């Protein structure tokens, strides 16, 4: 199992320069610790998650790192021109020396995104799949003509092409049809930090039922804070989780979906506790979901403490896991 970080560019100080600088330093820090991956989220119209320009951020990270793989978690395809996405992804792949992992999603549940990008949420899944099919063809074929419901191109030649001959693909989805599509196409799965473990297991089982023998290459994110005692971990993580939960609860309730994302529930679904507790939690995730990659989302509002707990994971927690759980 590979270990990485999940980057959402938190901005608790309402200082975008500090936010971007801090996240860059974090990615460089985990690369030095031997982490294998860093994935960047795409969010819009949210001052607490300053990562709308996901491909620009990844291009910059490609220039300030040398070994760690860089992933998009995820490019929200309904909000973008697929030709431009293909060009940007190919460029980043070249700049990174072939270290790019391409994850996509439909976006949501954030109505402002659909509203301002003029992408109806009822068709955004179909737009995502159609855009991805076009992008794959642009990567693989010399010249592409494409006539779909949402996108049409005539004799397009992508320049440049990605450095990787086959671009690694992932999709973030909980929709059975989209999971089955991913399975049949050999596209990997991404699971978000708040997902209950049983839901993740169900997604993986749906994938495997649709394509027996195909590796779902699950990339699973989890909020993380470990300390010598559970009480210390909770004291530090609770302000971060409360801030996240309040924001998400407001979004869901505004859509008439009722209460959701209570802080205690999010903590229960996270890697938060003593070192021994986190080791046991990671082992449980591996036993039940067998992810290809586990992405840690540091759960502190203090940037220095986030660096420290990632160091603790590398020096205390990872060595305590069975060798089969930590090899790439």
TrEMBL record:
Name assigned to this protein: LLM class flavin-dependent oxidoreductase
Pfam family, one: Bac_luciferase
Luciferase-like domain ranges (all copies): 1-288
Single Gene Ontology MF annotation: oxidoreductase activity, acting on paired donors, with incorporation or reduction of molecular oxygen
InterPro entries per UniProt: Bact_Lucif_Oxidored, Luciferase-like_dom, Luciferase-like_sf
Sections of the chain in a coiled coil: none
A cellular-component GO term for this protein: cytosol
Organism: Rhodoblastus acidophilus (Rhodopseudomonas acidophila)
Domain of life: Bacteria
